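Practice problem: Uracil phosphoribosyltransferase
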Amino acid sequence: MIYNYNRIYICTLFSLKNYQKHFMPPCLNGKIHQISHFVPLLRIIMQITVIDHPLVRHKLSLMREKNCSTYKFRTLTNELGRLMAYEASRDFETEDFDMDGWDGSTIKGTQVKGKTVTLVPILRAGLGMLDGVLDLLPTAKISFVGLQRDEETLEPVPFFEKFVKDIEKRPALILDPMLATGGSMVATIDMLKKHGCQSIKALVLVAAPEGVKLVNDAHPDVEIFTASLDSHLNEDGYIIPGLGDAGDKIFGTR
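Answer key — structure tokens:
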């Protein structure tokens, strides 16, 4: 099942807690981290698609385990990237064309219309999703954005960018396992639009309400696809329950 929360507003944490206290079904009370299962009950306005699928939930749960190894975390990141790309490409425009069938007769085929997508992994953690997405979109062109977070201000600091030359003619899929504060995502979208890119989607494994709201406020035309909409950010800017530092876990530098 896919919950497509078209233009949903993420309430403040105070509002969420009030909702939890006064309106949430007793079976969910105290389980604010499971927000992706009851968000449809909220009157909110934000643009996000939460991919609620058994395999997605299973693999994400394995990634949340405290002792998840580097190999396992990296493999699961790759696999989830592939599953999410399937849903993010669901509305790609297609066109019919003529081709020769197995018996030599002319038959109709279907192909994706226009320029192939450009994948934009945010360095470094976004690289963990790249191979999985490429499994589904092998002809995609790859652009890169390098951002690192200032651990004191939590603001993104750019250090690298490399875009395909005709990016203004291609749809872009931004890859980043975590959407926490949203600063890196907004900065990446800013850079893409500055280069003329007009169709942008973001693929993230886990999102925090604060980050989703920031992206939606800055770029309401950009749709976010995530495997889970988690509870909140802690005082250090980490998503709760989250995954920890995805970059460190993917590359074994924790």
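Discussion: The radius of gyration is 19 Å. Students who identified this feature from the tokens alone can consider the problem solved.
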